[in-house]
Amino acid sequence: EGKYSTYSNVAVFRTVPLPPGKILQFNGIAKSTQSIVWQWKPLPEDINGYRIYNAENDQLLTEFKPNTTSWYETGLNPNTTYKRYIKAFNVGGEGTISNTASATTLGIAGKILTFRGVGKSTTSIEWTWENVSGALAYRIYAAADKKFLTELTGGKRVWLETGLTPKTQYTRFIIVVNNAGEGIPSGNATALTLYLPEIAVQLTGRAASARSIQWTWTTAEEDITGYRLYVNPSNDLVKEFHSNILVWMEDGLQPATPYTRIVKAYNNVGEGVASNPATVTTLKEPPRQVEKLA
């Protein structure tokens, strides 16, 4: 009589899945001088995660869960190109290498080497500088307290600062701004606002003859262009002189006649205060000699 044994245990076998497919959309975007955002489109299949490698040496850099679609990589060097690739993985292993993506970190804004100022009036200074490639704007600061003064865009390289005090020094520096932010400050530039001559000149005169007077005035002791001699009180200009002229002989006058003059120092801004009025009377004509009859 035949006998049957009981059933053996049930053996269950699971096949190992194939590795994931290739990620087709992998790219990097520079976000600062030290960071890049790497992005990819998720695979429509069951995976365990993603791994990103350095394309230069195939070194594994980081690993992510399957619901991740970007990585913010930091600690990089400015103005440097980085190359990366990504692989999806599952229990069957890693998938095919993606495209190699490259991105260059932002560069630090350049430094302005030539920054200068020139007084344009008693209350204004014109600041100028050279163009810097990649600049989005220029910011000017007061050197004394680092106070922000203005920002200029659109490729401007000149700023007329107004509302200043006459005969006063002002010191400024400038910074280039690009898409990475502010660059290195320039060196300080100093300029002086203009001013009118302030010291009153003293005028004296003496009659040199019946038709001439010698006028003498003191120096203004300032940085001036010259002097102007006027008739007083009509203020008609008699003559203009260079700054090194302090004496002048006025000719063509009438005998025994008083003449009043004033003098003013002037510069490229204008004239200073008038001197004291000086009045001098020319000498009388000497009497004519009568010839004796023979």
Can you describe what's shown?
The protein is mostly beta strands and 294 residues long. Helices cover 0% and strands 45% of the residues. The strands form six sheets. Strands 3, 4, 6, 7 and 8 form a five-stranded antiparallel sheet that branches. A hairpin with a 5-residue loop joins strand 19 (226-231) and strand 20 (237-242). The radius of gyration is 44 Å and the shape is rod-shaped.
Beta content comes to 35-45%
The major beta sheet can be summarized as:
5 strands, antiparallel
Order of helices and strands: EEEEEEEEEEEEEEEEEEEEEEEE
Number of strands: 24
| Nearest-integer average pLDDT | 93
Relative helix content: under 10%
Number of alpha- plus pi-helical segments: 0
Shape: rod-shaped
**How would you classify the helix and strand content by structural class?**
mainly beta
Low-confidence stretches: none
Radius of gyration from the alpha-carbon trace, in angstroms: 44 Å
Straight-line distance between termini: 202 Å
Write out key terms for the chains shown.
294 residues; mainly beta; five-stranded antiparallel sheet; 24 strands; rod-shaped
Which secondary structure elements does this structure contain, and how are they paired or packed?
Elements (H helix, E strand, L loop, with lengths): L25 E5 L5 E5 L8 E6 L5 E5 L5 E4 L7 E10 L2 E2 L6 E4 L10 E7 L2 E6 L7 E6 L5 E6 L4 E4 L7 E10 L2 E2 L6 E4 L10 E7 L2 E6 L8 E6 L5 E6 L4 E4 L7 E9 L4 E4 L3 E4 L13
Antiparallel strand pairs: 1-2, 2-5, 3-4, 3-6, 6-7, 6-8, 9-10, 10-13, 11-12, 11-14, 14-15, 14-16, 17-18, 18-21, 19-20, 19-22, 22-23, 22-24
